User: What shape does this take?
Amino acid sequence: MTRNVVTPFSHSTSKHFGVLLAGCAIAITTGCNFGGGSGGSGGEEADPNIVELPITYVKRTLPVDEDDPTQIVPWDVLEPDAFNGGAVLYIRDRAAASALETDITSSVWPDGALYDVKDIDAHWSGERIVFAMRGPEDPDLDDDEQLKWDIWEYNRIDETLIRIISDETAAQEGNDVAPHYMPDGRIVFSSDRQKRSKAVLLDEGKQGFTAMHENRQNGEYAFNLHVIDDEGDPSTLEQITFNQSHDIHPTMIADGRILFLRWDRYGNNNLSLYTVNPDGSDLQFQYGYHSQNTGDNDSQAVFSQPRELLNGRILVNLRPRTDNRLGGDMVSIDIGNYTEADQPTAGGQEPLSVLDVVISGQNNPMPSPHGYFPSAYPFYDGTQRLLVSWNACQLEDPLDPGVVLTCSDDNLANPNLVEADPVTGLWIYDYGSETQRAVVAPEEGYLYTDVATFEERTAPSVILPVPIENPDWETANVGVMHIRSVYDIDGVDTAPGGIGAVSNPGNAAYLSRPARFLKIVKAVSEPDDDVYDFDNEAVGVAGGQRFKHILGYVPIEPDGSAKFLVPADVPFSISVHDANLGRISPRHENWLQVRIGEQRECTGCHTANSEVPHGRRDMEPTSVNLGAGPSGFPNAAAALFPVEGETMAETYARINGPRVPSFNIVYTDEWAGVGTTADPDITLKYRDADPDIGLNTTPPVSTGCENNWTSFCRGEINYLSHIQPLWDYLGRVNDADESAVCVDCHSRNIANPDATQFPIGTQLELTNDPIGPLNLNPNQNQLWVVSYLDLFRQDYQMELDMDDNLIRSTVTGVIGQDVDGNDILGPVPIQIQSPFQNGGFVSVFSPGGSHDGGVTRLTPHELKLISEWLDIGAQYYNDPFDAPLD
Assistant: This one.
């Protein structure tokens, strides 16, 4: 349908919108009829630097909802495999409106087939491009049976189009999107193949399935970065990042690193720019973790489609996570000198659009006077020109559909007008001279996206892999992590009395230092329902923590440093614990990784909301742990003599090797020198040879791993298998010094209802009975037993009635309203809080707690098990395959 265009200066015109703009060369500040300004020159000006340069772009039909064509299907950055059929990839031999347009992709598919194309990257030779393309949908196939996204390459010189992975079976093993050329002859791309992650699952004794991302309810698989040679040989395909959610939009930067957008779903749910070396080593945060709300009115915005400019800044398309306007603003980011939009000072993030582009979410849409940019690509000729797709600001009256109004000040102030559907064209946008020139006229019902130029430029540097220092690490499938000091919090020494005090065995602070052990935890990959449809209540109260496995513990050296082995190619996090295994640090809710043989170092820790650069070596504050002085560590054991500047962990690792994680804590002080007082030994085990000091059951660790750690060892604590037996164990001592079990008191089945513990003890039931009618919400959480419900959820208070029957306690209260709105009074069950809602559970066993007083309730070994289970999320099951089918 042809629209009529109404400007502030005329009531209507029959000209088509695209015709009005064709060949328009304008000054941006005049608006080219988009803000009431005068029109363009009407003719094309000669520009020898541009007109001879070939360009490429995607033209697609406006994506609309099949059930409601008036609704645009939004672009969602968290759906990298979204399919919108109706796209075509074109090239022009010149960046000019008069140049010939050639369709280079439709020949792959039958005539009229609706396929999809996106994510173009041009080779620095100016001769080739790679892009992602997916074939048409088959209405007779399920979603998992449809064609996958593939990487394709077009060579402009010999006019050939090939699929990079030619083997059909290998090509269809995953969705491959966002390909980019690498300077070493390979291609990096984002994919849900999860090749290495699947192999790790097999090593763990599981199925090699494709894992969902952490927001499992969305039904999407996790996309991570992979590389392959440009010949498409499947044997060269390698996974290089191991996030539990998406790693997307990779691009090469001049120094040879890969810059990409990471979804940190675990924790703060942020989308930030990260870098990684081509071999997957040296994964670092780069920019924007605390700059999520840089849209208008503090709205959330995403740094999508990053690409380096000649000046080293990064061009991004800034837009909402979910965007039904299908475009955003052009913003440049100084990643060399900044980690946040306002850190260290304002200036790290600046718009390139000359006029204002408004970025706001779908819940609070605001018109953008300068329209929106779906895509932008720099020219590498030393100018400040960009090839852009642009949607001008257009308004319409819902009561008069089909008539488009310009975004004049008067129209923008009219509350009855709304934004019209986007209509884009291609332009050469010069933000230096503030001009733009039309290359392809807008056409109603179509969008132009994913633009690029065929232009020769300097290739990025090549980063070679670092040789593996120790061949045993390769055999063991491990890397090495070094933390200079856990007392270094955002560049501040937080050790009591300072690091120098707690690290000196001759100082009293040495014996009372708080940080003693580091716990290493990994996430558990979750399958889709076709692989294993488990009951979602299986995770219990863990919520965003989901399933977690423990990889082990390592000692923290007296100066707060730690150097230890970790499994390669798995996402892991860490936390700091005291001598009783109580966590004294926040959870590190960002996934770390090491490749085989890689050695990583960080200065210390940081607080969650701190904008002090952390996780990026070139911007972190200098470590407050200066290491050993010329005379070594004061009062330390002679056998552990350091090299000047070494941390205690580095010294220990140089002499004995990095610390090896373990599940049992067996610690003996190795640092106290002659004439000093050594730490007491610490022994906390899952089981012991003497059953009187702990629950002598099978520990929650992989077979053979209790005393012989490998990179494939996992600690998995399930409530029914490992925690419920603590309540049922006949080895406690009650107040009468008689053998007892926890459920003797904490049960509704009390032999003597007149006992002093009733009804107090029954308010916390620790039986493994099914949830019944006396419990809160008996129709919910049927997977759980009564003890788990009572420990974590509010439940009804119980008491005995006149006939000694157990009933829910009630009070008189409002239970509803009558037809006149008057309160109806009646019995309301009394609710009790769970122990964890009132500040913890383990504390009742501490000195002065209700279960202290010299009476043995739980041993330190059992409390260790409970503490670590609580710390990782108190899951009901800790592996989806352990849970019953839904």
User: Anything to note?
Assistant: The longest strand covers residues 446-453. The chain has a mean pLDDT of 86.
